[in-house]
Specification:
By secondary structure, this protein is an alpha+beta fold. The chain has helices spanning 2-5, 29-35, 82-85, 94-103, 106-117, 158-163, 185-188, 192-203, 212-217, 223-226, 236-245, 276-280, 309-324; strands spanning 13-14, 18-19, 22-23, 55-60, 65-72, 118-128, 133-145, 232-233, 249-252, 268-269, 331-334, 354-355.
Length: 367
């Protein structure tokens, strides 16, 4: 694993952000900077998700294990608003930023390197697509360079570390802080006890988080293959938080004789797929998220199913009701982790569901 994780982050690719279905470049950057709206935000939590310079990698480590690395510029760096207010390199791709940096001198060169190869949000997800085991590493709110340290071995000598630099990547300039690029994993990532809630509350359904931005680059395992898997967590802080939060998988009883349409593709959970994203993915314009997303008929992601509108509304209403009231009549729940011992008998065969008993009736109100 250390061979993969120690590689320079610039081996990944820019995943493009669009506004009104047009790729953001230097000539139309002001449209994004002024309106703060985009079609496919890289982070589903505010207008920060519309910033253009993020890197995404999906690495197949072996037959079963996948690693996702998502490195984002989504906030002020060193108390400056470079990423939103600057016109020097926003809208540029990686090649253009590198060329601009290499032509600069002195303090300007250092400043451009911060914009070219530092971020303030890093997420690493390791997922076993056969067993459902998942592990999370993250750092946020601080300056992070695009060089990742090895996770499971000591930090190599500086000379050896420099040899692993991607030759296509510009090296840090003189006076660039060494501790931003030459540091071990304990200094590079926040501890699991600090990050457990954020990682698990968001990613518990599939291990990953699927969205138009992530899917535009794809490389993730097919969502259909991930839906039947449990959520088996590596690391006691994650296990403890999962149990404390009582995260459950949700379904509904059949509606007019048909199985719930939402769960034909997705694993619906009490946090992660239920909640604010449930309305958001359907393009409901009254959601807060839509205040910073480009308005348009293609703003909704779901549902890509062939079903009559009336029937579809019944399914969506029932699922939404069970998200808000898991104990209502017509709702099904079961444990999906965080360890093998927590799973109900027959989980792998699709069994283990418990039918809720009321007092509210979710399916009966889906009209």
């Amino acid at each position: 694993m250390e061979t993969w994780i120690s590689q320079n982050l610039s081996r990944g690719s820019d995943t493009l952000v669009y506004v009104n279905q047009e790729e953001i470049r230097q000539d139309n950057w002001p449209q994004l900077a002024t309106d703060k709206k985009c079609d496919n935000p890289h982070w589903l939590g505010g207008d920060m998700g519309c910033w253009t310079y993020s890197h995404l990698q999906v690495l197949q480590l072996d037959d079963d294990n996948v690693m996702v690395v998502n490195c984002r510029q989504k906030g002020g760096q060193r108390d400056k608003k470079w990423y939103r207010d600057s016109s020097t390199n926003l809208g540029m791709d990686q090649r253009q930023r590198k060329a601009q940096y290499e032509k600069a001198y002195g303090s300007k060169k250092v400043e451009l390197y911060y914009m070219y190869n530092t971020f303030n949000d890093l997420g690493v997800i390791l997922r076993n697509t056969r067993t459902g085991k998942a592990c999370y590493l993250t750092q946020y709110g601080e300056t992070i360079s695009g060089f990742l340290p090895p996770l499971d071995e000591p930090l190599p000598a500086k000379s050896d570390f420099l040899k692993d630099f991607n030759p296509d990547q510009a090296r840090p300039p003189w006076r660039f802080p060494e501790d931003l690029w030459y540091r071990d994993a304990n200094k590079a990532f926040k501890s699991p006890s600090v990050t457990a809630a954020g990682c698990i509350n968001c990613h518990n359904a599939h291990g990953f988080k699927y969205s138009p931005y992530i899917n535009s680059r794809h490389g993730l395992p097919d969502i259909y293959s991930q839906a039947p898997l449990p959520m088996l967590l590596v690391g006691q802080p994650y296990i403890d938080h999962f149990r404390k939060s009582k995260i459950l998988q949700l379904n509904t009883v059949p509606i007019d004789g048909e199985d719930q349409v939402c769960t034909r593709c997705h694993k619906m959970t009490t946090t992660g797929t239920c909640g604010y994203l449930f309305d958001f993915v359907q393009g409901r314009p009254d959601m807060t998220l839509h205040h910073w997303l480009t308005k348009g008929p293609k703003n909704n992601w779901m549902p890509p199913v062939d079903m009559g509108v009336k029937s579809l509304k019944k399914h969506v209403a029932a699922m939404e009701c069970c998200c808000k009231n898991p104990g209502a009549k017509g709702c099904l729940t079961r444990k999906l982790g965080p360890t093998e011992a927590d799973l109900p008998k027959g989980f792998k065969e699709g069994r283990g569901w418990l039918e809720s008993g009321g007092p509210r009736e979710c399916v009966a109100t889906a009209n």
